[in-house]
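ASSEMBLY PREDICTION REQUEST
Request ID: AP-0331
Submitted by: J.K., bench scientist
Number of chains: two
Total residues: 558
Priority: normal
Notes: Please return the full assembly, not individual chains.
Input sequences:
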Amino acid sequence: MTRPLRIAFLKPDYGVTGGLEGVAARLEAIARRDGHDVRRISVDMRPRRAAVAGLDIPRRIWDAAPEYFGYLAGRDGFTRLELANHDLVISTQPPSFSVHHPRHLALFYHHHRVYYDLQEEYLRAGYAPDEEVHREAGRRIKELDQPHLERVGWFLAGSRTVMDRLERFNAVTNASPFHAGLIVGAPTRRPPAATEARPPAGPILSVGRHEFPKRTELVVAAAHLLTHRRFALVGTGGREAWAKALDHRLTTTEVDPAALSDTEMWCTTGRNAAPVPDDHRSNVEFAGRVSDAELAQRYADAPCVVAPALDEDYGLTAIEAMALGKPVIVCTDGGGLTELVEHERTGLVVEPTPAAIAAAVDRVCADDSLAAELGRNGRERAAELSWDAAAAEFREGIERVMA
Amino acid sequence: MPNSDEVLKYLRLAQERVEGGALDLPPGSDAVRYTRDRLAEALPYAHAGLLLPQGTRLRPLKQAVLGAVRSIPANQAPFNTLVLQAIDGAAAAIEGLAHSVDVQEQHASRLQAGVATTELTVDDLVDDVRSLRTQVADLADQVADLRRAVDGTGA
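STATUS: Completed
Returned structure:
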């Protein structure tokens, strides 16, 4: 084993907590258990002043490309960190990989996606009204990122999807896959108890932030094709009001959910969502943020779980669902999710449309033996993705950098 | 909305700024390094040959002769030693202060990246850093003076 090291975990703080936060915390705990001295170093990515490395940017200019200037401001924070007294740095989300250190292990799940793999969808959604500016900003971000990514000693990539992105955008191949275990609940291979043999009667569950492009709107639209079934969406986010407005619109109008275009659902900024009356009720529950215990219970009660995200880096919610024996429904363009979910073995992989998702939900809910088989296989698959296995991959990454 | 050319100009400026964004050496670092080097060189000669090792035969006599033939005041050697110690102390103080400036600068940079809770906090911190820089610069000047003094003693 590597001698005890002084390790800095680098984490940009975007003010939101996602699955990666849980992964980083688990890895820090593993490193501490291994006898290393671990420090978490965060840089806030929400600048209150419009400046990059001391260069004041006129607010109207900043607002024309906030993804660019904000990223550069945070990047500058990481490049200025003095970490020479650490044996090893472990970067997490971008731009923490911009740090200068000779021994650098990157826990890599994604680039600054709106300038890389999500650039076209981001433009199509209308987030960046000046396409020329956005593309030029993206070109510069890539130019800035490239030398830093080339200096990383080793990448622990969140999935094959992420490894492919690194190779495609950066010609980086010094990477190995890292499969995080589940964060909520406990994996088990035991067969369902007698009480679990009955099909769960709770709402169909979807867990994820209401953010672009998690596509929670697809679940809302699918729910309105299955009004006899209850759905629950766990999570909050900047597009929650938009998702609620869509739910209200589909409840109160004759719009056919199956006929909605992407730009009417998820491929839009979601700004200017119509207000929803307080007394609005439908078969969709917006549960917001819940405790881990409540989330585990909701998983247990759900007949199946829908994870509709576009090109996901990994898919922790799918692992959590599978670990609890739940069939998982993902989309064909789900990226890392499609690595975890095998069609008709551990779940269903369907087209990213409300109709296809609704049909998949109906199929699982109507066929108890299929649901049981998918759940059983999913539980076995999830058990392979244990934290013990993840810890071994993590330690191997450290060894590679320290060699 | 600003025109594209104006935004593109700032995209370039911001990139150039972060590309050249390696942490500047704090003021005084050169002076500290120079002083340290000079101290390392000067220390073996601080006594300028005036003090003979203990145990030297007829040491009091030889010491008196040395004092007579060399036009160095009798208090020169301890003076040199004290000056060097003083410079050493000043250098250490500057190093400590420079480190403090580094830390403050990093902190300020992170605040600028969004850690700040209020603009006032950022401004206060920037003022603190500016004050520290002034102190470092003053100390650097003092070290430079001392350096010239040491050079002047012929140590």
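REVIEWER COMMENTS: Chain B is about 75% helix and 0% strand.
SIGN-OFF: pending second reviewer
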